[in-house]
Amino acid sequence: MTMMPLLQMTNLSIGYDKTLVSNVNLEVGRGEVIAVLGPSGLGKTTLLRTIAGLVTPLEGEVILNVNRRGGLGYIPQRLGLVRHTSVWTNVGLGAMVSGLNRLQREEIIAESIIKMGLEDKIKEPVRRLSGGQQRRVATARTLAQSPPLILADEFLGELDDDNVELVMASVLELVKKGSTLIMVEHHEERAIEFADRIWRIVDGKLVEE
Ligand SMILES: Nc1ncnc2c1ncn2[C@@H]1O[C@H](COP(=O)(O)OP(=O)(O)OP(=O)(O)O)[C@@H](O)[C@H]1O
Ligand SMILES: [Mg+2]
Questions:
Q1: What distance lies between CA 170 and its chain's CA centroid?
Q2: What is the pLDDT of residue 98?
Q3: Tally of CA atoms within 13 A in the half-sphere of 110 that contains its CB
Q4: Using CA atoms, how far apart are residues 25 and 8, in angstroms rounded to an integer?
Q5: Phi and psi, residue 75, nearest 5°
Q6: Position 2 pLDDT exceeds 70
Q7: Mutation test of ligand 1: which of 24, 42, 151, 199 has the most ligand atoms closer than 8 Å to its C-beta?
Q8: Is the CB of 20 under 6 A from ligand 1?
Q9: Which pLDDT band, with edges at 50, 70 and 90, does 68 fall under?
Q10: Element (H, E) at 48
C-alpha cells in the first residue's frame, strides 16, 4: 500500500490582492515537525490559513489527507478563544470535534487542562487569564482534539522557558503518536531545537533549509 502524504502543496501561490509567496511545491508526512520562519508581514500566518482552507490559494492547490473538521487543529496567532466562557468550555470545543464519546471527552478535557498547568483555572472565564495562560488554553483545546495535523501560529509566544518546555512536551507526545506539527516561530533557536524541517520565507519563496 502506498501512503498518501498528509499534506501536499503543488504550484501553490498564496496572498490576498498581492501574491505573498509563490510556487510552493512541498510534501509533508506523518509525525513531522516543521518550523516556518521569516520576518513579520511576509505571509507565515497566510500560509497556515491557506493550508487550513481559510484563505483560497491564488494559484495551485493544497491537498490535505485529513478531515478538515476533526483532523486539523489550528492554533491561531490570535488564539480564537471564546473569551467570556470558561477554560473547560474552550478546551471542550477541541474535544467536541474529536469523535470521542462524552465520558472520553470529559477525561481528555481534564487531562489536557492538567497538562497545561491550568487546573486552578478550570471555571475561570478566559478573558480573566494572562496572555501566556490563554495561549496554554488554546494548546489544551488542540490536545483535547488530538488531530493528525496541528497548525500552530506562534503558540509559544509570551511563554517563559518552563512553559515552553511544558507545552512542547505535550505537543511532541502527539507527534510521537503520529501527528504532524507545522509551527510558525519567531525564535530561530526554538525552531532549530524542536523542528525536523525548517521552511523560511525569502523573497516571496518558501525555502526549505
Ligand atoms: N485578510 C487580509 N486581507 C488582505 N491582506 C492581508 C490580510 N491578512 C493579512 N494581510 C496582509 O498580508 C501580509 C502577510 O500577513 P501575515 O499575517 O501572513 O504575515 P506574518 O508573516 O504572519 O506576519 P507576523 O510575523 O507579523 O505574524 C501582510 O502585509 C498583511 O497586511
Ligand atoms: Mg503571523
A1: 13
A2: 87
A3: 6
A4: 8
A5: -105, 95
A6: no
A7: 42
A8: yes
A9: confident
A10: helix 44-51
43 lines ligand 1 (CB under 6 A): yes
Domains and CATH numbers, the chain: 1-66+148-209 (3.40.50.300), 84-146 (no CATH)
| Smallest-distance ligand from the CA of 56 | 1
Please check the confidence at residue 64 and state whether its pLDDT lies above 80: yes
- Residue 70 clears pLDDT 80, i.e. is over it: yes
Is any ligand 1 atom within 6 A of the Cβ of residue 18?
A: no
Alpha-carbon torsion (7, 13, 19, 21), positive or negative: positive
Q: Report CA dihedral (170, 78, 23, 188) to the nearest 10 degrees.
A: -60
**Residue pLDDT, tens place only, 172-206:** 999 999 999 999 999 999 999 999 999 999 999 99
Q: Could you tell me the three cell numbers for 196?
A: 525536523
The protein residue with its alpha carbon nearest to ligand 1, atom 9, reads: 46
Residue 87 backbone dihedrals phi, psi, to 5 degrees: -55, -45
Phi, psi of 2, rounded to the nearest 5 degrees: -90, 140
